[in-house]
User: Fold these one by one.
Assistant:
Number 1:
Amino acid sequence: MNVISKIATNPVARGLSVLGDRWTILIMRDVFLGRHRFNEFRAHSGIMRGTLSNRLEFLISEGFLRKQQYQSKPPRYEYRLTEKGLSLYPWALMLWQWESEWAPTDKAIPTLLVHKGKYSHPLNPQCICRHCNKNLHFDDVERVKVSEGAEINNPVSLPDSWGGQRRTRAKVPQDVDVSLTHVVDIIGDRWTTLVLAGSFVGLTRYDDFLNNLGIATNILADRLKVLVEMGIFSRREYRVNPSRMEYRLTEKGKSLYPLTITLRQWVLDYMPPVAHPYKLLHTTCGHDLEVDIVCGVCRKKPQVDRVKFHLPQAVTS
């Protein structure tokens, strides 16, 4: 079985088949920041009206948002988080944290997350193992094969939107909120995410990506180039004649792992189980990998109503 089939049953791929879309992520960003109305979404994301309507309908149908009327004549609606939508908050915090650490200067988030309480303090979200409470690091996780039969049971089809040309490097309109757009440039394009997922399961060489992931050569070359330009991969020649390249995760690339595993945990906790031939083992403690997001200061799980975003009036390009 090739890697793409294994990734198709992977919890991360299942989560991204629902949430791995640029506009979907930016709409959820806006809702978590307290924006609830159609025109607010348009103003802050720069999304086209038809695309916005489509994504809002999708998020409602998937149970992440609910539509609530706030004006009768003419009818006007707000979009509010459901319990399922709120369950994505740990992932949203990890997206925010990664962006704060790694976004280039022109997209950096000039703000703090504040964990409110008797003694309020800055919130630095941390992904930890549920069993040993140690912070999660890419190099501390091992893939362990658990079943031959699981490889062919209940595969999740990769959606049509995994193909096509890259859409995430278009110029951002002026006066829109650019927070999270750096990380969205990576996970908001499913071919890029597929290449990244391949690197997480050990692929490093161009031919390995090509043969295992079923990507057209021009698309693969573009995504590898983008990931190198963004500092996610380093590129090195391992053979001179003929020239052959390999692509390895940088520290910036490895730092995407905790937020990726946070999405995996959400899928395991909130979506129906699907057989997968591998499990993840946290080598630090020897347990199957399960994670939680906690405050780096008090080590408590942040709740939506206990976190304040010190966001300026405009975080724009």
Note: The chain is about 40% helix and 20% strand.
Number 2:
Amino acid sequence: MRLVKISNEFFNKCKKNNVHKELMFNEGGRPSVLIVKLKYKEQYHKFVVPLRSNISPKTPKDQYFSLPPNPKTKPHHSHGIHYIKLFPIDDMYVQSYLISESFDILVKKIIDDNESAIIQSCQEYLKQCESGNKHFMTPDIDGIIDMLNTNKDTN
């Protein structure tokens, strides 16, 4: 897994194709966790899961992987990998995320140390989505896959 950023081109294309609802936009290069392969509806796709600074204290703990608070994290909120915000991605929209601060290094180490648990939780959530139990805040996974496949067909 890698910490990455997603290009603005991706978000603009999602807006144009009306599959942008519930996506967490870049906001100056929001880091996301790139998971190379997850199974969704019998096919493997690359997914990214955004890091969120202010996950509500009411959010069930099984919806995110907790990380140490960052400077933007409000009191009583959590910073973490928010599984319900995952979405599919193609390599052409993935950009490097510069890990330069000690906090980023700490976060990356925690993610690396818990890689299998994070992947398993994301895969379990995708199974819930497949069975119709998708959280209302989850991006349009099917719409984004269709957009990405259409994009491949036109290239």
Note: The mean pLDDT is 91.
Number 3:
Amino acid sequence: MDSPSLVREMPLEVFLQVSSYLTTPDLCALRRTCKRTEAWLFDTFSLEFFTRKQFMLTETSLQALIDISNHPTLSQCLRHVIIGLDNYDYSGRPLPHFSQDAHANRYRAGLADQFTLLSTGQDRDMLACAFRNLPNLQTVGLRDYSSGGRIRDSGQWHSYGATTIFEETGVRLAGGYRQGAIDTDLRYASRAFSSVLYALGQSGARPAAFEVLLKKRGFGLRDYAFNIPNFLEPSVVPVLASLKTLLLGVSLANESIFDTPGANNSPDLESRDFRFRQFFHHTPNLTHLRLNFQNVETSNDEDFLVWLSRPALHPASPAPIVLSQLRRLDIGMLSVAPHVLLDVIRKFQPMLRELSLWKITLKSTDQDRRRGKRVNVWAKFFAKLSDLDHLSVGCLSQLSQQEQQQVGFRPVDSQEDAWGISRDYSRDDMLDFPYNLVRDVLLEWPEGGDGEDESMSDDTSDDYDNDTDMDDDE
């Protein structure tokens, strides 16, 4: 009689704990040893590797997504699909140096395959085919990087197929941007966004969240990415209407048509972000909105926020939006006048419960500049906030008298010397958070600067120019 198998004698929880220390190749090898180990490992394996997966717009990668969607069990697991912006170099520059002819040939073949995939719309058809068979799809997104947080192997979550391409060519595909190819890469990210929306509409999928997470400043989605043609409205608009969460990285850059003489004064010329504004008329059910303005043209960002802050009956083109269910608002990566940002918050304040401000520069007002004093603009801003369940702020700065000062926060622990770059309030400590923020926000003024420091003076709650208190009615 054969001796009993160690696996058969081992308690399931011990077996799973031991398997958690294996590398991914070793874990896959263990799964193939026998049906019992495969059965024991399947649930944890699918949870770790198939609840959320990242793909890219290549035939091999999208075919893997289709294969998963056709699997009777794994298709039920996949809830979060990320489309990485990994792409070959279409900028027209010379190809990178290859150490072997085989690497160069493989890169050229991959570039040709991706070009055909994108130019024929095959990527949209393949995405629609996959989305159609994912009944529990909750979140879809775009990403221009490989996310960290992979505990097993201490690695990153790359787009499916990206590692193989690197091994075969010696070249890591660009994550949606490369130096010297800005226009090409902006078009690629914007096209990918439109393609994913089209595929969702064609598939009938209704995810609750769409996330565009872009790390490179200046490479956000352009205005034309948000265009919804009449032909696509019947399929795409229901997708947008079903969204509860929308996270966007946008680049509302200048276009050459707006730089022609007299263009800015023409009543018939649409705004630079006209389609971006129209887009929000199709997302009435949002509860969480994030706007990261990844662009150096700050005036365009501010113009959009002015439009966003307008009441529903304001005579604007396109008409302002309501977003009556909005509970969380995240704004980041822009320079803006304090009263503009406050107007946005004030508009949504009746329903807003959570607010996040990240990498924002507040510009001092004309009144502050006329005084010639050092004014802590953020202290005045925080004094106007109230009625929130959660507030998160970080990486802030202010621009006064052509000088930019970094903003920090007084250490919570009296034993600490270093300033904090962020501050977070929630639940029980929200009652006193405006006072605490006004008290704790700090600025490092340049040596020898002129003017009296007014950062903690009694008028920190004074209104900004053209601003009213947040408690006032519209």
Note: The first strand starts at residue 52 and ends at 56.
